[in-house]
Write a structure and sequence with these properties.
By secondary structure, the chain is α+β, with helices and mostly antiparallel strands. It has 4 domains: 56 residues, OB fold (Dihydrolipoamide Acetyltransferase, E2P) (Beta Barrel), CATH 2.40.50.140; 61 residues, Nucleic acid-binding proteins (OB fold (Dihydrolipoamide Acetyltransferase, E2P)); 57 residues, Beta Barrel (OB fold (Dihydrolipoamide Acetyltransferase, E2P)), CATH 2.40.50; 85 residues, Winged helix-like DNA-binding domain superfamily/Winged helix DNA-binding domain (Arc Repressor Mutant, subunit A, Orthogonal Bundle). The chain contains 5 helices and 18 strands. The strands form 4 sheets. A 5-stranded antiparallel beta sheet has the order 3-2-1-4-5, with no helix packed on it. A 5-stranded antiparallel beta sheet has the order 8-7-6-9-10, with no helix packed on it. Strand 1 and strand 2 form a beta hairpin. Helix 1 packs across helix 3. The longest helix has 17 residues.
C-alpha cells in the first residue's frame, strides 16, 4: 500500500484495538476504533487514507486530509523546532517539513504553499521547493502524443505566488500557469483553490490562464447569472453596455467585454429589453411581438442548419434586350471588329500645328 493516498480495502478481521483491513495482495493495515464507522462488518469495504504513524507504521483513517501525495496545498504551520516545521493537514500526525525543504524559514501561525512528497525512507514530508515538482512547459510526454491542454480547457488552480504581471498558479498539481492582471476581475489570494480555464498555450508550451470561461462558454455561463440576478432583483438591473467597467466587475466579477457579450446574447434570445438606465426582463407580450416582427423566428442563426450559409444576394433581374433596327449604323450584333485609331504626329508641321506630347 502506498502511503499518502486513498485505498479501497476490505475488512479482514476485528480486534480490540480496531479493524484490520486488507488489499487484493493480502497486505493488512489497522484502522483504529475511533475511526471505525457504525455497522461495519467483516467483508465490508471501506475507502481509507493510508499514512505513517509516529512509529512509522502504516495506519488507516477515514479522515480526509487537505492534501495527498504528489499534490500541493496551502497549509498553516502549527509548530517549529530544531529539525523543521510541522503543518496542519487535517490528520492526527502533522506533516513535517525539514529545514532543507524550506525555501524560506517557516514561522508558526503562517500559511505556506507546500507540495507533498516522500523522502528516501518512504516517510511523507512537505516541501516549498515547488520548481522541483511543478513543470514550466505543458508539453506531451512523448513524441507524437497530444498536448495535455487546449484553449478553453477547464482546470483546477492553486494560487501560489504574486508577481509583477499577476499571479503564478499551479495547474492540476502538475504545471505552472500565469494569471495576468488583465484577467483578474475578482479578489483572489495566495493559497486559494479555484477553478480556471486555459486562455492560451503559448509557443513555448507555457500556460496563460483565465478565471472566466473562454469565448461562447463565457457568454453562456454569464448570461445565466445575469438572468438569475434579474429575477432576484424584481426583473430590473441598473447595468447596461454603457455602465462603468468597475461597476460591472463589482457585481459580476467579469470584464465589461464579457458582460456585453452576455447581454447581447440575452437580447438576441428575446429574454431582456435594453433601456437607457439598464436592462429588464422582457414580458411575454414583448417576446411574442419581437418574434412576430422577426418573421416568427426568435433567432435566425439558431434555427439555421449547421453548415448552411446565409444567402444575402438579391435575385437577378432578367430584362429583355432591346433589338436594334436592322438598318441602324451602330449595329451591336455586327461581328466585324473595330479598328483602333492611332494618333501620330504629322510629318509636315507648321508653327500652328499641335503636336502630341512625347
Amino acid at each position: 500500500m502506498t502511503p499518502g493516498l486513498f485505498h479501497t480495502l476490505t475488512v479482514a478481521d476485528t480486534q480490540p484495538q480496531g479493524l484490520y483491513l486488507s488489499d487484493d495482495s493480502g497486505e493488512r493495515v489497522l484502522l483504529p476504533n475511533r475511526f471505525v464507522p457504525e455497522g461495519i462488518e467483516t467483508g465490508s469495504t471501506l475507502e481509507v487514507f493510508i499514512y505513517l504513524d509516529s512509529d512509522d507504521r502504516l495506519i488507516a483513517t477515514t479522515q480526509r486530509p487537505r492534501v495527498q501525495l504528489n499534490q500541493a496545498a496551502s497549509l498553516m504551520v502549527k509548530d517549529v523546532n530544531r529539525t523543521g516545521a510541522f503543518l496542519d493537514w487535517g490528520l492526527p500526525k502533522d506533516l513535517f517539513v525539514p529545514f532543507a525543504e524550506q525555501k524560506q524559514r517557516m514561522e508558526a501561525g503562517q500559511s505556506y504553499v507546500v507540495y507533498v512528497t516522500s523522502d528516501n525512507t518512504g516517510r511523507l514530508i512537505g516541501t516549498t521547493r515547488l520548481n522541483r515538482f511543478i513543470k514550466d512547459e505543458a508539453s506531451a510526454n512523448w513524441p507524437g502524443a497530444a498536448d495535455p491542454y487546449q484553449m478553453g480547457d477547464k482546470v483546477k488552480l492553486l494560487i501560489a505566488q504574486r508577481t509583477d504581471i499577476g499571479y503564478k498558479a499551479i495547474v492540476d498539481n502538475t504545471y505552472w500557469g500565469v494569471l495576468h492582471n488583465s484577467q483578474i476581475h475578482k479578489a483572489i489570494r495566495v493559497g486559494q483553490k479555484t477553478e480556471g480555464f486555459i486562455r492560451q498555450v503559448r509557443e513555448d508550451q507555457r500556460l496563460d490562464l483565465s478565471l472566466e470561461p473562454i469565448g461562447h462558454q463565457r457568454a453562456d455561463s454569464l448570461s445565466k447569472r445575469i438572468l438569475q440576478k434579474l429575477k432576484d432583483s424584481g426583473g430590473t438591473l441598473g447595468l447596461n453596455d454603457y455602465s462603468p467597467a468597475e461597476l460591472i466587475e463589482m457585481h459580476f466579477g467579469v470584464s465589461k467585454r464579457a458582460f456585453k457579450m452576455a447581454v447581447g446574447k440575452l437580447y438576441k434570445e428575446r429574454e431582456i429589453i435594453i433601456e437607457e438606465n439598464g436592462i429588464r426582463l422582457a414580458s411575454e407580450e414583448e417576446r411574442k411581438k419581437a418574434i412576430k416582427h422577426a418573421g416568427g423566428k426568435p433567432d435566425a442563426k439558431k434555427n439555421k442548419p449547421k453548415g448552411q450559409k446565409a444567402n444575402n444576394r438579391k435575385p437577378e433581374k432578367h430584362t429583355a434586350r432591346k433589338e436594334q433596327p436592322k438598318d441602324s449604323k451602330d449595329d451591336s450584333s455586327s461581328s466585324a471588329p473595330r479598328k483602333k485609331t492611332v494618333y501620330r504626329n504629322p510629318k509636315n508641321t507648321s508653327g500652328n500645328t499641335l503636336r502630341l506630347k512625347k
